[in-house]
Amino acid sequence: MQIHYNNFLSITDKNRRIHFDQCKSHENEIDSFITHSHSDHLVSTDQNTFASKETISLIRDVQNKIKQKNITNFTEVNYNKKIKVNDTLTITPLNAGHILGSTMFFIEDDETGKTILYTGDFNNSDSLFLKAAEPIKADMLIMESTFGKPEFNFGNRDNIYEHFSKSIKEDIDQNKFVLIGGYTLGKNQELISLVNKYLSEKPIVDKNTYSYSKVYEKNDIFLGQYELLDHNLSESNILILPMNLISKDLINSLSHQLNREVSSYIATGWNYNRSCKVFHLSDHCDYPNLLRFVQDVNPKEVFTMHGFKDELASSIQKKLNIPSKPIEYISQKGLFDY
């Protein structure tokens, strides 16, 4: 089994090549495995692509909205059900806990007995409607490191929910209109669920958040009540939008239109500064949980990718005494035999 990295992970075994995320190849004899439906992990290919049912439905929703031809040939995968790629390679999809349908892949070389866990983006804490990613023992761990520095320590997720909802309730009690920004796919669905469960409020949402939320419901995740933004701001106390749209101009405009003071929030793991209160609610692991996940997998070596990969690799070596390097180390060596 040979591993290669050139902006995405590739594994070759007995002349069968497998790509993980971001494959744009039209070559023959290539299978693509997609971890989730965020745009930086998607494929554009006419080859066979493996993904969860939920991921496929989210991708199709995007393609339909932009009227893009469905050029990807999908094969649906199920968590914990093994996929025999060839005579020697087996891949098992696992829940990643990141967004709806997100998947880790456990790769087994049946000849040598060696194993690899590839996380993609993952979260090992339960959210309001997603179960946490569970570690599995593996010889090699290839993991995301989005928040791979000690400064990213979000604390207990239930406590974040409590503090967030308490702050929003205080605003509403003072007749303030609440504006919340998050990522359209994943985060905003959690925010809809949060304000329903903790506050019994029905938020108004933008059209993309609304569309994705309907896909969640079609996949048996009930978020609670919400309405599409359509000249109806006076009918709710809360508006949920993509975080990139939140600005001073928007806040001032809403305040003028509604004749109410506007209280604004951003829900993100990043230290975000746009005249808003920030609650560190993330779909990714924070730094302590990344290290805990490595401990639980107990690999012989770790390769980090995305985000603070150098810092996390250094921490894993120093704190856990496990050999660890950024994933680019593989590309620098060319094909990495394993």
Q: What is CATH's topology name of the largest domain?
A: Metallo-beta-lactamase, Chain A
Helical fraction: 25-40%
Distance between the termini: 6 Å
Number of helices: 8
Indicate the proportion of strand residues: 25-35%
Question: Total number of β-strand segments?
Answer: 20
Query: What's the main sheet like?
Result: 7 strands, mixed
Strand order of the largest sheet: 6-5-4-3-2-1-20
Radius of gyration: 21 Å
Sequence of secondary-structure elements:
EEEEEHEEEEEEHEHEHEEHEEHEHEHE
Shape: globular
Give a quick summary of the entry:
The chain is α/β, with parallel strands linked by helices and 338 residues long.
SSE topology sketch:
Blueprint: E1 2-5, E2 9-13, E3 16-20, E4 30-33, E5 48-52, H1 53-65, E6 73-77, E7 83-84, E8 89-95, E9 103-109, E10 115-118, E11 140-144, H2 157-173, E12 177-182, H3 187-199, E13 204-205, H4 207-218, E14 227-228, E15 238-242, H5 248-258, E16 262-267, E17 277-279, H6 287-297, E18 301-305, H7 309-320, E19 324-326, H8 328-332, E20 336-337
Parallel strand pairs: 3-4, 4-5, 5-6, 10-11, 11-18, 12-15, 12-16, 13-14, 13-15, 16-17, 18-19
Antiparallel strand pairs: 1-2, 1-20, 2-3, 7-8, 8-9, 9-10
Observed structural traits:
338 residues; alpha/beta; Metallo-beta-lactamase, Chain A; Rossmann fold; 7-stranded mixed β-sheet
What does the model show?
- A 7-stranded mixed beta sheet has the order 6-5-4-3-2-1-20. The chain has a 7-stranded mixed beta sheet with strand order 7-8-9-10-11-18-19.
- The protein has 2 domains: 2-151 and 284-337, Ribonuclease Z/Hydroxyacylglutathione hydrolase-like (Metallo-beta-lactamase, Chain A, 4-Layer Sandwich), CATH 3.60.15; 157-279, Rossmann fold (3-Layer(aba) Sandwich).
- It has 338 residues and is α/β, with parallel strands linked by helices.
- It starts with a strand and ends with a strand.
- The protein has helices at 53-65, 157-173, 187-199, 207-218, 248-258, 287-297, 309-320, 328-332, and strands spanning 2-5, 9-13, 16-20, 30-33, 48-52, 73-77, 83-84, 89-95, 103-109, 115-118, 140-144, 177-182, 204-205, 227-228, 238-242, 262-267, 277-279, 301-305, 324-326, 336-337.
- It is globular, with a radius of gyration of 21 Å.
